Amino acid sequence: GRFLSPEARSLLLEKRNGKTPGRLTALDMMLLNDPHYAKIYTSAMNELQTAEQATENALEKALKKSDELKTQLSQTMTNTKALPSGKKAFKDINGSVWSEDDMKLDKAQAESIEWDGTEPSYETYLDQRHELEAVEQDIHDIREYQTDVLGTIRGDLTDQDDPKSVDDIETYSSKMKKLMPKAVQQEMPLTEIKAEPSKTADITLPTLD
Questions:
Q1: Which of 55, 121, 128, 143 has the highest local Cβ count within 10 Å?
Q2: pLDDT per residue as tens, the chain (209 positions)
Q3: Which strands make up the sheet holding 81-82, listed edge to edge?
């Protein structure tokens, strides 16, 4: 288990020597007896923890953004005129008037509204609404990824009695990356990409004398 962290190694050794209660699990045995497995497993757990932290950060930011946009949209609704029905009305750049649920008002309805020129435009209202919808979708995607992808992978990787194969672990690793929402990707730390050493030696071409 030379690839384990010092903490993990000392914990396993303590369990092995009987200093802590509990038997050595099937997963412990794999980690202690197979250095290649321990390396792959430790790497996957590190990736998982990094993805979990990035997911937490992304969710926190998206929830904060959602609150800000809701406040902004609420202000926009407050600052425009209301129809007799109570629904809000907005005028677009061409002078057409729309209800808050995107119904175009006829001329008589539109002319019954007294505008003072300070109201937010229909375009502003649409932009804010669409931005909020996009953030709400992000929140949904992040939570789904957190539970269905990362939660499931953590459950499988920490199953003490059923150690997953190297192939399974590598599949989890690619699944974490492949299914990661964009909002989470943006919170991932930038890891250094080491240049692959050249597979072929430098070949010197003969010169014609």
A1: 55
A2: 445 666 566 666 665 665 555 678 999 999 999 999 999 999 999 999 999 999 999 999 999 999 999 999 999 999 999 999 999 999 999 999 999 999 999 999 999 999 999 999 999 999 999 999 999 999 999 999 999 999 999 999 999 999 999 999 999 999 999 999 999 999 998 763 344 444 444 555 555 65
A3: 81-82, 88-91, 97-99
Quick check: 183 and 58 in contact, CB under 8 A?
yes
The Cβ of residue 152 has, within 10 Å, a number of other Cβ atoms equal to 12
Closest CA to 50 of 193, 207, 188: 188
Residue 6 buriedness (CB in 10 A; 0-12 / 13-18 / 19+): exposed
Task: List, in sequence order, the alpha helices (H) in the chain.
Answer: 6-16, 26-33, 35-78, 107-111, 122-144, 152-157, 166-178, 182-185
> 90 by DSSP, 3-state: which?
strand
How many Cβ atoms are within 10 Å of 200's Cβ, its own excluded?
Answer: 5
Work out the burial of residue 85: count CB atoms within 10 Å of its CB; fewer than 13 is exposed, 13-18 middle, 19 or more buried: exposed
As a whole number of angstroms, the distance between CA 11 and CA 13 comes to: 5
